Fold this protein.
Amino acid sequence: MTHKATKIVIITEKLIQDGVARIIQQAGASGYTVVAAGGKGSRGVRSSGRPAVVDAFANVKIEVITSNREMADRIADEVAATYFENYSGITYLEEVEVLRPHKF
Amino acid sequence: MTHKATKIVIITEKLIQDGVARIIQQAGASGYTVVAAGGKGSRGVRSSGRPAVVDAFANVKIEVITSNREMADRIADEVAATYFENYSGITYLEEVEVLRPHKF
Amino acid sequence: MTHKATKIVIITEKLIQDGVARIIQQAGASGYTVVAAGGKGSRGVRSSGRPAVVDAFANVKIEVITSNREMADRIADEVAATYFENYSGITYLEEVEVLRPHKF
């Protein structure tokens, strides 16, 4: 009943949420989840020189369950190439076991 | 000081949050965490035919640290049987290492 | 392009968010992410005897990607020693694969 999948997590600025979502959908993912997030990056300021966000929820944590690792890599590469020169972000992968993939 | 545990993550519609929480507690879990979430499912509309939620936070991400895999499976099965004919949702498991399980 | 890392997740009361963030930064972590959370702990009341939080978002879920396991352990130990006599909380670790560690 379960199968292995790769979860890709992208934590970045809320400003680019729509663009990241477009990349996710163009890669063929069947859905994604967005959570409002705050926090602090490594340099105290964002890539663009705007002030860093510490406690407010101006970031987003976007999660995608991908059916294969190639899709996860494609999303990560495309997001980095498109946005991470000008916006702060981190992307990481986790192995998960999906119990009900067929509807979401 | 640490021990392995299974984390179960249920991402579903906020409407059924209370029902899912009841199932979690009846399964014997000692606690759970709820985060407001938005996102997009696989079919553009929800199971019930209501419009899909894209950017608003009408979904929830519910996490439970279970002390054994059987409890995780029981929660997943019961949530799916009770709700996933009529509501959108995805459930997945992750292996974690718990450092302080005795109080939360 | 990727490397293994340990993610530490601390779910605790919002009241101590700033103190936990200080511990994270003093341990040398380059950043962290905070998400508002609700939920229910193991005893129905908090450690301090105040009423338990069930549905409101009076908790926080704080995530840190650490470059090594020792840093993760140090953060967990320090948070527990400083706060977990008087505040509810759970800490767990997950192994992740980081794709873009250099900027966040």
Notes: Strands of chain A lie at 3-13, 32-40, 59-66, 89-98. Helices of chain A lie at 17-26, 69-83.
